[in-house]
Amino acid sequence: MQLTILLLTAMFLQRPATAHLHPHTFLTTPEIIRARGYPAQTHHVTTSDGYVLQIHRIPGGRSGGQGVGLNGLNFASSGKNSSSNNRGNQKVAFLQHCVLCSSADFIMNDPDQSIAFILADLGYDVWLGNARGNVYSRRHVRLSPIQPEFWDYSIDEIARYDVPAMLTYVRKVTGSPTISYVGHSMGTTVFFAMMNYHPQINNWVRVMAAMAPVAYLHNARIFQYYATIIDALEISVTQLGIVEFLMNNPGTSKLISVFCSPFSPVKAICSAIRLFLFGLNSDYVDKNYQSVILAHNPAGISSNVLRQYRQFNISRRFQAFDHGAARNQRQFGSASPPRYSLARVTAPVGLFWSDGDWVVDSLDVKQTASELSRVVLNYRVPLGDFNHNDFLWAENAKDLVYGQLVRLLEAYN
Q1: What is the pLDDT of residue 255?
Q2: Fewer Cβ in 10 A, N or C end of the chain?
Q3: Catalytic residue annotation
Q4: d(Cα 351, Cα 366) in Å, to the nearest integer?
């Protein structure tokens, strides 16, 4: 059996197999952006606790800032095209990724089907964030990723240090005092939590678009169906001392991408894995682009971030990371972690969610909406099997989500 697996692996990794892969499969985020015909920049931001984060920027569209049309409508741009030295651009969008994701997840489709490209063509100066620990943000002024201390962080630190540092930098470079914020999954969690540390940042945000918003998770079907497996995995991770979770290296990226290519005889396994992780396999993702997605995702994160989401589920609370009574007492001044208040989010928020999402349940969205101070849009995707990551990768996300999202952003610009 082992010999068979080795032979199959060797066969798939030969040139004829990789030749069938999409040419973007092993490109970086800036390389994919340029391959699509857009300008790309790479910036670095150092947080106050020493993590060096990489941000990717699309400072202009292919059409010189003119709206390319979405859902049959033509959104005119402000005419203020961005450049590296353009200070004062009033159409700035910052996009923050999900757990185990990176900046790449916002460009995983054709230009008229990817939200980052759509916004760039509409005249937005688009910035793509990367949280500490993912493939683009694995540097620290003092620590190395091989040290466990590097991974001693949770959602709390991403919310307290990473996103504020990136937003501060974007405002400084662009000269724009306000920003439109687009988040998916964890990108929404850290936004909501951030306002408990830095409520003044509400004043920096014109509007926040929350795709698959995550604050409460006690109705999440992924935990209902797989709690036993998830908890067993968490125990194993703890016992083995694993602090970094699921980052593809070049070798595994190549192997997985070839196995999941359109011509692979085992590609059905890839679809089964997607079903296991994200729910109904909606089949709205371009199969020819699946190798690109799997080469970039998962992008790596601290194990504590995944533990914290399980804590949300078990505690039925939106709260800081539970380190245990002793460390909680030292860090928070109480044996239990403090709750995050959604009422401290006073910027206008638009919620985008789907019944087919196994991670974000409609009941949890309802509770989130009831506690936010200013929900200006509560949008349910009108397709029952639209799943958690379809918000990013589905070919029909343009019609089902991005039209509404662009209208929301344009209403505040």
Answers
A1: 61
A2: N
A3: 185, 388
A4: 10
